Amino acid sequence: MKIQIARDRATMSSLAAEHANASIRAAITRRGKARIVAATGASQLEFLQALTATTGIDWGRVELFHLDEYAGLPENHPASFRRYLREHLVEKANIRTYHFLDGQDDLDSVRRRVGDALLQEEVDVLFAGIGENGHLAFNDPPADFNTTEPYIVVRLDDACRRQQVGEGWFASIDEVPDTAISMSIQQMLKSREMIVVVPDERKAAAVREALEGEVTPAVPASILRKHPDVTIYLDEPAAALLSDRFKAGTTGRPA
After folding, report:
1. Alpha helix (H) ranges present in the chain?
2. At what angle do helices 45-53 and 9-31 cross, to 10 degrees?
3. pTM (2 decimals)?
4. How do the residues of the chain divide into helix, strand and coil, expressed in percent and rounded to 5?
5. Which residues contact 36 (CB under 8 A, 6 or more apart)?
6. Which domains does the chain have, with CATH numbers?
7. Under a CB-based contact definition with an 8 Å cutoff, are residues 69 and 82 in contact?
8. In angstroms, rounded to a whole number, what is the distance separating the alpha carbons of residues 41 and 75?
9. What is the pLDDT of residues 100-133, one digit of tens each?
């Protein structure tokens, strides 16, 4: 596990975007195409903006998969992750092959259909964030570390739903769906590489628990330490509670 701490959110996003660009281009060089999974939410906006502004990627050779989506939310809703990916990645990069999770359709049918497509080949690089409650995708605590289903239907806890209100996606917690489709933990870990982008002091406690606490379903992001090739990009506020060995740029896989 590699930790990169930048002085501010813009620098963090730029560094992560440069890394992502290199990883996507390397996959295209290696096998003629790249399969990626993209995260959404406020924490990923500047990163995706920086990534789509980079050069050298043949986006026509990129296949995109959706990480998670609310149940029952129409695509025109401001909080729809389909809308988010379309506006901030698909249309900007002109990605022609993508697989969205339609939360308005039958959830089991959607997760199986997109899951079957996902399982056809290895994912080259997966982008993710860490939630205020330590979640990965919509795998809220206690997360299922064991299921091998590529996508699962999950219930969102109150902490996750409050975060969505706090970030301005919904006016009140009553408006936030309590059910979603999420890529499973085990499926995320199958990705060849993971790039995790985590800005903001609101995430500092979750970052500390994920990187320095026990690997446990109570802190879903702690499982990142079991992946062989993961880089976590933090700004200084998100890294504020980490011990000095992380702040000094120490890398490794803590037990």
Report:
1. 9-31, 45-53, 81-85, 91-93, 107-118, 158-166, 185-189, 204-212, 244-247
2. 50
3. 0.93
4. 40, 20, 40
5. 24, 62, 63, 64, 65, 123, 124, 125, 126, 127
6. 2-247 (3.40.50.1360)
7. yes
8. 15
9. 999 999 999 999 999 999 999 999 999 999 999 9
